[in-house]
């Protein structure tokens, strides 16, 4: 999230300047299926030379507006979800490793 071209596109497409880190979430088997079903609906993040394409989605986590970023990188774990926001989400929401969270995609 620290790359200038990523910051710019997240601000344009999701409406906030992202904190330079992500909240990484491991998905359940059912959530992996939902993530795959969303693949066509995301907003494109167009890469600079040498980087990979990705998709982003508006989302909500514990009532906070945030976003989901899905990098289209070979070998990227299908059960991983990267959540972004204008703050350090882990600190703001007082989360610890292993805490369960519910992320809602906003259309």
Mean pLDDT: 92
Outline the biggest β-sheet.
6 strands, antiparallel
Beta strands, count? 6
Q: Structural class of the secondary elements?
A: alpha+beta
Proportion of residues in β-strands: 25-35%
CATH class: Mainly Beta
What would CATH call the architecture? Answer: Beta Barrel
Q: Count of DSSP helices? A: 3
Radius of gyration computed on alpha carbons: 13 Å
Total domain modules: 1
In N-to-C order, the SSE pattern is: HEHEEEEHE
N/C terminus separation? 22 Å
- Low-pLDDT regions: none
Amount of helix: 10-25%
Question: What general outline do the C-alpha atoms trace?
Answer: globular
CATH topology: Elongation Factor Tu (Ef-tu), domain 3
CATH superfamily: Riboflavin kinase-like
Q: How does this structure look, described?
A:
Strands 1, 2, 3, 4, 5 and 6 form a 6-stranded antiparallel beta sheet that branches. The protein has one domain: Elongation Factor Tu (Ef-tu), domain 3 (Beta Barrel). The protein contains 3 helices and 6 strands. The chain is an alpha+beta fold and 107 residues long. The longest helix is centred in the N-terminal third of the chain and has 11 residues, at 4-14. It starts with a helix and ends with a strand. The chain has helices at residues 4-14, 29-38, 89-92, and strands at 23-26, 43-45, 54-61, 64-71, 80-84, 103-105.
Strand and helix map with partners:
Elements: H1 4-14, E1 23-26, H2 29-38, E2 43-45, E3 54-61, E4 64-71, E5 80-84, H3 89-92, E6 103-105
Antiparallel strand pairs: 1-5, 2-3, 3-4, 3-6, 4-5
């Amino acid at each position: 999230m620290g790359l200038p071209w990523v910051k710019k596109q997240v601000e344009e497409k999701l409406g906030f300047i992202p904190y330079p880190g992500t909240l990484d979430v491991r998905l359940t088997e059912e959530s992996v299926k939902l993530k795959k079903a969303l693949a066509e609906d995301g907003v494109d993040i167009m890469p600079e030379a040498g980087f990979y394409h990705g998709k982003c989605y508006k989302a909500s986590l514990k009532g906070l507006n945030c976003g989901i970023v899905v990098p289209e990188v070979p070998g990227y774990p299908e059960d991983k979800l990267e959540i972004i926001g204008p703050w350090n989400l882990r600190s703001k929401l007082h989360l610890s490793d292993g805490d369960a969270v519910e992320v809602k995609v906003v259309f």
